[in-house]
Amino acid sequence: MPPASLPSAPRSAARWAASLVSTAVGLSGAALVRLVDADAALRIIHGTCALAHRLFELDVRLRDDNPGGYRRGSYVFVILNQTSLLETFLLPWLAPVPYRIIVNIEYALMPIFGWSSVPLGARVVVRQWPAQAKRAIRRAIADLRRGDSYIISIEGRRSPDGALQPYKKGAVVMAIEAEATIVPVILRGARERLPFGAWRVQPGPVEVHLLPAIDTRGLTYEDRDMLVARLRALASMNLADAPNDTV
After folding, report:
1. pLDDT digit string (tens) for 114-125?
2. Which of 14, 35, 153, 161 is deepest in the core (most CB within 10 A)?
3. Phi, psi of 216 (to 5 degrees)
């Protein structure tokens, strides 16, 4: 089947406007609800993202290799590849349990997405202030030890060309120290729908793939490089045969 054509500029602008308005309303509501019911807040976030998927005519599919569910313990959902701005509407949608994120101060100051992240439980890191950044990470580890979960990109930024970027160790170290379960996540099709630097979204399929969970119990700080290498190998293997336009 040939790929869908790009929508016109006016139609694309209207879709972005509608998605931003609905996201502002949805995330604000989720932030308020989270004060009393984290699960209900997550359902609002999922619904907000699903509305954005419909607005952009995305066929988003979830593939989960963990049929046992996510009932007990804390999880670190590690995003193994980032290539598109569309992930803004994919990463919150993939979470099967209430979650937190770690954001830099620049993101936290961004209208809508950044402003809502703090009341939704984000830990803010000021990279220019190393002592504060270390405290924020220690608090995130304490969150995990209390049973919270996190969504973290192991690359830390979007890839401009789709190639894997250097992997950082922070997510792995957090998981090891908290003995949290790592769930590796692969995203397919997002770059084809919205490449780096583009703004018009091409309708079509996107897949969010939750790979088999990795138990970190018994691992130590000395195992961090091994675990990072394992995650990169998983990414390379799972992305090697990905089709260009379909998932």
Report:
1. 878 888 888 988
2. 153
3. -100, 0
Residue 241 has pLDDT above 70, yes or no: no
Residues 80-127 have pLDDT tens digits of 999 999 998 999 999 999 999 988 888 788 877 887 888 888 898 887
Structure tokens that stand for 215 in this block: 């138990």
